[in-house]
From TrEMBL:
Keywords: DNA-binding, Transcription, Transcription regulation. The lineage of its organism: Bacteria, Pseudomonadati, Acidobacteriota, Terriglobia, Terriglobales. This is Transcriptional regulator, LacI family. GO terms for molecular function: DNA-binding transcription factor activity; transcription cis-regulatory region binding. Residues 1-53 form the HTH lacI-type domain. InterPro entries: HTH_LacI, LacI/GalR-like_sensor, Lambda_DNA-bd_dom_sf, Peripla_BP_I. It comes from the Bacteria. The keyword Ion transport does not apply.
Length: 336
């Protein structure tokens, strides 16, 4: 910084004021300082600024993993909002492990991020709390945390599951299986509960399988189901990953959709419209959820707030009717 000050013909305090923007500096002086910064290719020490009580200009984002398109879309929305605020984003993953999640959050806080966004790991096992974050703003999204002081942004998981299963029942299906990831995940369990309730209300028996975490497991599950008594005539999958695994199994077994087996999944993705047949899904607003969560975080950063009771925002889902469920629409029908 002293080299910048010397070249611009000002004091180091003036350079600091130009960089921080906290104190008005004349346009001419600002121009000289910025010219010196460009000539010297000076880069401010962000961590040092944070130690001095200034904002670091960065936020942290912890996701379960990045190979699920849903989480990648959320991350893209967060980075877009961050850029609009002149911020960078540090992104890491927890691999659904509470201890890893805690360690990554602690590492980011030690780097003095100005705020932290997290899609929590297993329900009721996440250790991300207000006690850990202290005065650093913290927002959870997609899944809640047990700490009521933390803001959370969710979608209508149970409602979406209920509506899509009702649609399958309207097609005449009485044996509908739910295939999901772990019930310890809030979203998977909430969607299962929505599925189970509408099945019970219709006087039908719920049939669910969990921990379907690979194509091989999905293949075994589907073979067992279809060869058993009261084999399903329709399948409802819990999220994009399970949808991918089950579709692979359907292809390997030569099953024709929807003639042999009707299909609906929770969460839309880019190629869902181009499969054969196109997939009926519950579409959740991944981009909107990431945008709302990030906007809420920046509002907290700006206000310097750490609330006693956090906001709980629930975003609506859409039903996208294509042809895998048995519909024969020439184009997708979106039901809000």
């Amino acid at each position: 910084m002293s080299d910048v000050a010397r070249l611009a013909g000002v004091g180091t305090m003036t350079v600091s004021r130009v960089l921080s923007g906290t104190v008005p500096v004349s346009a001419e002086t600002t121009r000289r300082v910025q010219t010196a910064i460009e000539q010297l290719k000076y880069r401010p020490n962000v961590l040092a600024r944070a130690f001095r009580g200034q904002r670091s200009g960065s936020i942290g984002l912890i996701l379960p993993y990045l190979y699920d398109p849903f989480f990648a879309n959320c991350a893209h929305a967060v980075t877009t909002v961050a850029k609009e605020h002149g911020y960078s984003v540090l992104i890491t993953t927890s691999n659904e492990d509470p201890d890893t999640e805690y360690a990554e959050a602690d590492e980011m806080l030690q780097r003095h991020v100005d705020g932290l966004l997290v899609i929590p790991s297993q329900f009721r096992h996440s250790r991300v709390t207000r006690t850990l974050a202290g005065k650093t703003p913290l927002v959870a999204f997609d899944r809640p945390v047990s700490d009521p002081s933390i803001d959370v942004v969710l979608v209508q998981n149970a409602v979406g599951a209920r509506r899509i299963v009702e649609h399958l029942i309207e097609h005449g299906h009485k044996h509908i299986s739910y295939i999901g990831l772990s019930r310890s995940l809030f979203t998977i369990n909430a969607r299962y509960l929505g599925y189970r309730r509408v099945m019970q209300e219709a006087g039908l028996e719920a049939d669910a399988v969990f921990d379907c975490g690979s194509e091989e497991i999905a293949l075994r599950v589907l073979q067992t189901k279809l060869n058993g008594k009261n084999s399903p005539t329709a399948i409802f999958t819990s999220n994009t990953l399970v949808t991918r695994y089950v579709l692979s199994a359907i292809a390997r077994l030569g099953i024709r959709m929807p003639k042999d087996l009707a299909f609906a999944g929770f969460d839309d993705f880019d190629l869902a419209e181009f499969t054969s047949p196109p997939l009926t899904v519950v579409r959740q607003p991944a981009q909107e959820m990431g945008r709302v969560a990030a906007s809420l975080l920046f509002d907290r950063i700006t206000r310097g707030e750490t609330p006693h009771t956090g906001n709980r925002i629930v975003l609506p889902v859409e039903i996208v009717l294509r042809r895998s469920c048995g519909c024969n629409h020439p184009a997708p029908v979106v039901i809000h």
